[in-house]
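2024-03-11 09:14:02 DEBUG pipeline.ingest accepted 1 chain
2024-03-11 09:14:02 DEBUG pipeline.ingest length=219
2024-03-11 09:14:03 DEBUG pipeline.predict start
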Amino acid sequence: MKRDKVQTEPRFIRYFPIQVSRGEILRLLGAGEQKTQLRKDTERIIQEAERLSRELIKPRGVYRILKGADLEKLGPLQGKELAGLGLCTIGAELEARVKELMATGHEPEGYVLDAVGSVAAEATADAINAKICHWAAAHGLVATPRFSPGYGDWSLEEQRVIFRLLPAGQIGMSLNPSCMMIPRKSVSFAVSFNKEASADRPKNPCQRCGLENCPFRRK
């Protein structure tokens, strides 16, 4: 693929449907593989949090495919010919409701709603990542699983580079002095790409994506 044909302009995705997994909510709450029926009060709290989340979550994100020269200041992407960067958030409304619940003596409700928000943020990142994976598939590339600053040996401070390369403000995101994202239920990530032999290329582009558990994955 010729590098001059790469589309490097940011692509925005706003207010799209996401799938918030009940299993992931239970995992974050410490229930793991729930084998027994939940207590009625616990089930009621979870159901209410799920209902509230549908009103409060406003998924939006932006991604961009970058060429090698743009990646020089991103440690794990140095030397890569191409990479994808993504930023996404579910907005600040759910976070504000969690704070309100915690401040008014409704800690269990706030804790559960916060867990729902965390699952929703990851689902939002999966949706943005799926767009990158399908871009890669259309260009004869295989996308690696996404990875984020602050994990492994990728410095959290390099969030600043990502926020310079992507128009975070246009989706309501910013960084605080400690490089933590605002709103809190947000995700920044990168993917790199590997070349694939055209003879081995499956017809289904999802079979060439590293995101095995993506809810948008085609069987």
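2024-03-11 09:14:41 DEBUG pipeline.report The chain has five helices and seven strands.
2024-03-11 09:14:41 DEBUG pipeline.predict end
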